[in-house]
Amino acid sequence: MKFNGPADRTIKPGASEKLEVTLSSGKNKGDFSKTLAVTTNDPRHPNETLTCRAKVLVPIQVNPASVNFGQISRKDSTKQQKVVITRGDLGSLALKLTPTESPGLVAQLHEIEPGERYELEVTLNPPFPSEPLRANLTLETGIAEVPILPIPVYATLAPWVVAQPPRFTVPMQRTPDWQEIVRLVWDDDTPHKILDVSTDDAELTVRVDEAEDQQRIVLQVPGEYATQARTRNVSIKTDDPQSPEVRVPVTFARPAKPADTKRPVAKAGGVGKSRPAASRARVATTSDEPTPTSAPAKVQETPPDSAKPAPPEPANPAPAESK
Question: Residue 262: its pLDDT value, please?
Answer without folding.
Answer: 63
